[in-house]
Automatic annotation (TrEMBL):
Its main location: membrane. It comes from Bacteriovorax stolpii (Bdellovibrio stolpii). GO terms for cellular component: cell outer membrane; pore complex. Keywords: Cell outer membrane, Ion transport, Membrane, Porin, Transmembrane, Transmembrane beta strand, Transport. Transmembrane segments: none annotated. This is Uncharacterized protein. InterPro entries: G_neg_Bact_CarbUptk_Porin (IPR050286), Porin_LamB (IPR003192), Porin_LamB_sf (IPR036998).
């Protein structure tokens, strides 16, 4: 039923006689990947994750993801430009995201399609050159591409904000954001409110710019309407900075350092707002360091490189750590035929040391010679290794390898931006 509503909504934009705008006033963009793979036993592809990498919820990051993506994924965004002149821009934007496992043609029982963006933005409509937006938005900045990891300023959710404010040679954006749970309390549904400030593109030199990010979040005191459990007040904050180095117009290097505490220690909207007596979330701390490089070495070679480190400190001063280093070199055999490799190693220290290392080889056909060139059609072979301490965690997502310390897969994949 949810997918039917999505289809009806999108068809209403384009149905004859129903359009309020000409097609020339609409732009589209998005991302997609799809493919198939076989594991080394001959069954369906299984993927290997170092759980806890880059966050202690779910499977963690898909580090060194080339050849280690077991689902098909699509993001499709439509931007409707109501007014677009040199001085004014008014638009609404909608984005859907679909993820499915590729087992059959329709995926009716397993696919997930959701609206992930629906917001409107106005700029130039007042005497001030500011922009204003309200709705649900991917409110995020930088990512590590080879890990599919939005690590800086990723506060996706519902809210509103003001941007394009001149300050200290950069542009300031302010936002009010919320994430609400399903838990009903005496004050309504419990959730987290975040006040976000980010100052972008402070230009220090012609080749160095700086971003600064500050955020404060809180969850109110309340009582569960059904169980009468009392929830404590919870607070937290984030402070971070990112330096953007221009590498002679052949690439970039991003160096970021962030600190988060309390309900904001995960650097996003998804902290725990249901804190009971004795929970010491307010004393939890996380320090994150990222260095991300993309560089065209010469007409034949280019690469992505990422170094990530995170240290999490529990309320009892127990420490957990994550360290990750990965690279994706690309060799251009011709303009459109490339040889890719990807190699990386990840270490999570949490009640022991869990390691995972991966090596992938992937020849591909590309639309051009750029390392960002898309679409691409690629074949791949990937092999992962892990230590005994990581055996049970890896097996949660790759049960065929539950008694193994290595595994792999081979297959085909397309990837595109549009």
């Amino acid at each position: 039923m949810k997918n039917l509503w999505v289809a009806l909504l999108f068809s209403s934009f384009f149905a004859p006689g129903a359009r309020a705008m000409d097609m020339k006033d609409v732009t589209t963009f998005g991302y997609a990947r799809a493919g198939t793979g076989t594991n080394t036993f001959g069954g369906d592809q299984e993927c290997f994750y170092n759980q806890g990498a880059g966050g202690w919820g779910g499977i963690g990051r898909n580090e060194f993801r080339l050849g280690n993506e077991c689902t098909n994924y699509l993001e499709l965004a439509l931007t409707f430009h109501h007014v677009k002149t040199e001085s004014q821009h008014v638009f609404t934007q909608f984005r859907i995201a679909n993820s499915h496992n590729g087992d059959d043609a329709t995926e009716s029982s397993t696919q997930s399609t959701n609206f992930v963006e629906a917001f409107a933005e106005m700029s130039g409509v007042t005497e001030m050159p500011w922009s204003f937006w309200v709705g649900k938005r991917f409110y995020r900045d930088q990512d590590v591409f080879i890990d599919d990891y939005y690590y800086f300023g990723s506060m996706n959710g519902n809210g509103g904000g003001i941007g394009n404010i001149d300050l200290l040679g950069g542009k300031l954006s302010l936002a009010y954001l919320k994430r609400v749970t399903d838990t009903r309390t005496n004050i309504g549904k419990q959730g987290i409110t975040v006040y976000d400030a980010r100052l972008k593109n402070i230009e220090h030199t012609s080749w160095l710019k700086q971003n600064v990010w500050l955020a404060f979040g809180h969850a109110p005191e309340s009582t569960n309407s059904t169980t009468k459990v009392h929830y404590e007040k919870s607070r937290g904050f984030v402070v971070g900075t990112l330096f953007d180095f221009n590498l002679n117009d052949k690439g970039f290097n991003h160096f970021a350092l962030m600190y988060g505490q309390g309900v904001m220690n995960n650097f996003n909207l998804y902290g725990d707002s249901l804190i009971t007596a004795g929970n010491m979330q307010s004393k939890q701390k996380r320090l994150r360091f990222i260095n991300h490089t993309t560089f065209d070495v010469n007409e034949k070679w280019a690469f992505h490189l990422a170094l990530s480190h995170e240290r999490f400190i529990e309320q009892d001063n127990t420490k957990e750590q994550w360290l990750s280093l990965g690279a994706r070199p690309m060799y251009r055999v011709t303009k459109n035929f490339h040889l890719l490799t990807e190699v990386g190693s990840s270490i999570v220290q949490s009640g022991g040391t869990r390691r995972l290392t991966r090596l992938t080889f992937a020849p591909q056909l590309s639309v051009n010679e750029n390392i960002w060139g898309r679409p691409v059609l690629r074949a791949f072979y990937t092999h992962s290794f892990w230590n005994k301490a990581n055996q049970s965690k890896v097996a949660e997502n790759a049960p065929t390898y539950s008694n193994k310390l290595a595994g792999g897969s081979y297959g085909l994949q397309m990837e595109t931006f549009f």
